[in-house]
Each structure stands twice: as structure tokens, then as C-alpha cells.
């Protein structure tokens, strides 16, 4: 073949697929804690399983209302870390555990405002809300937080993933070896189980973005 000759149509390479762009906002369960760093956490494991390009935002100790030591809520993390980026295919907002000293109405209101802000900024992005994560039996007040986040999801017609499901009266929980010695955060095994649960739930909702 002479230099510069065109390839036959059958030999023309197809353009490479684009990995879906997914962003997630969360607390220490999402960004990493203890010996489990963010790149090994459940969000990164979900991204690897589903072929996503993942951008993680948020910080340990933060919530919909609680600013934590970093001094910002989930909404403030969205504004500072994500809102100026190109519109993603999917945004996951995961948390609420750190809002334990806040009334349910404030949590729900903050979650609704964040969802409304995301929709104004990225009208075509699909959104998923994930409730607070407990690897062991959750205290009573945690159900109040869970319901506040769930209600916000219902109001904005956003899918809600409930990590309390495996902890229910007929659930098996997250299994042995899933919790670090602090009794709070997941081990690497715990993150793997969380990721498998999330992949299953995303498939059930039919919202798992695929390579384009």
C-alpha cells in the first residue's frame, strides 16, 4: 500500500468507546478510612466492575448538614469539587451518618436543596441517593436519618439505595470480617461486599451507565 492510501471501509478502525463519567460525593465510607484508601473503597470497586471513569468528592465527617473538620457539607463539596466539571452521566450522593445530631427536617431539606442544585447545573445527569451506611446493627436514631434521606429522594423522584437492607430482620448483614476494629468502618472485604450490593441494586433500577 502506498503511503497516504486510504484503508478499505472494512478495515477502518471503529472509534474507541467512552467510559461513563460517574461522580460520587460522600463521607469516610466513600473517600477512604483507616487502612482502606479511596482507591480500594466500595465506590472505586463499583467503578472497576462497571467500567466507569470515577471522580470522588467529599470528606470524612461530612454530611448533608454536618460540615465536619473540613468545614463543608455535601452541597459545599459539590460546589467546590464537582459543579465546575463537565456534566457526568451519573452522580451518586452517599451518606447521612454524620448528621446524627441534626433533626430529620433539616437533613431532608438539605438533601432536597442539593438535588435541586445538581439538576439546575446538570439537567441531563442521572442521580442516585444512598442512605447512611452501617456495617453492624444501626441505632434507632440512624433510622430517622435514613428516612429523611429516603423522603428527599422520593420528593425529587430520585432512586434511593438503602444500605440498611442487609441489616433487616431477615437479612444476613454484611458478614464476618466486614468491619474494622473501630466497629464502624468497612474492611477491604466489607467494601467489596458493599460494592457487590450496590452493583446489584443499580442493575435492578436499570440506571447503570454503560460505555458509549
Automatic annotation (TrEMBL):
SUPFAM superfamilies: SGNH hydrolase (SSF52266). The keyword Hydrolase applies. Residues 25-191 form the SGNH hydrolase-type esterase domain. GO terms for molecular function: hydrolase activity. CDD domains: SGNH_hydrolase (cd00229). Keywords: Hydrolase. InterPro entries: SGNH_hydro, SGNH_hydro_sf. Gene3D superfamilies: SGNH hydrolase (3.40.50.1110). Pfam families: Lipase_GDSL_2 (PF13472). The keyword Hydrolase applies. This is SGNH/GDSL hydrolase family protein.
